[in-house]
Specification:
alpha+beta, eleven-stranded antiparallel β-sheet, about 200 residues
Length: about 200
């Protein structure tokens, strides 16, 4: 009798020490509304999340300026399509009239935010100058990020080592701006109206 009482007492102590069983938490799917905390800098993560808010929408743009170094896009229909939004990348095809060769890509790589330009021929093969861009520096905010050219860009674009791309959304999310400077000189700026999705 004494042994049985001792056995039950020890069993009760073991159960109390182990505590109640809990079911494993369910995984939460990443959606455009779900922050995805993968970037080291909070400002870059907030920017990425703000960009995600545009997913599934298309917007018309306007060329604000284009330097004399390249033909302008005046009179062309400029459309950005925020098509792919995943935890580690956002893809935005940028169409200039009938030219559908360009896609902007925002990537999460090793906790850093990277911006690349994917250029392809109509059959889908990469152009010679493609995937250039750079990593965001540490001066950005939740609404604007600056991407100085990386070493790869310096190799594929003549003079490209001086490029800095700035991507900006105003705090009211009414305008998206794509801007390029080279060695401090303004090269290109296109503004998109976020208040009128197509």
């Amino acid at each position: 009798m004494y042994r049985r009482m001792l056995f039950f007492a020890i069993a009760a102590l073991i159960l109390a020490a182990c505590g109640p069983r809990t079911e494993p938490a369910e995984e939460t799917a990443v959606t455009p509304e779900t922050p995805v905390g993968l970037l080291v800098l909070e400002e870059q993560q907030a920017f990425f999340n703000n960009l995600m808010r545009l997913c599934g929408q298309s917007f018309e743009g306007e060329q604000i300026y284009r330097s004399h170094h390249a033909p302008g896009w005046e009179g062309e229909e400029l459309i950005m399509h925020v098509e792919v939004c995943e935890a580690t990348h956002i893809q935005i095809p940028f169409h200039i009239g009938d030219d559908h060769s360009r896609t902007w890509i925002f990537l999460v790589e090793d906790g850093r935010l990277r911006f690349r330009h994917d250029h392809r021929y109509p059959d889908g093969t990469p152009e010679e100058e493609t995937l250039y861009g750079g990593y965001a520096d540490d001066t950005g905010t939740a609404f604007v990020q600056h991407f100085p050219a990386d070493d790869y860009t310096a190799e594929v674009i003549d003079g490209g080592e001086g490029n800095v791309w700035t991507v900006k959304m105003d705090e009211n999310m009414t305008t998206f701006t794509y801007r390029l400077e080279r060695d401090g000189e303004k090269r290109l700026r296109v503004d998109f109206d976020l208040t009128r999705p197509l």
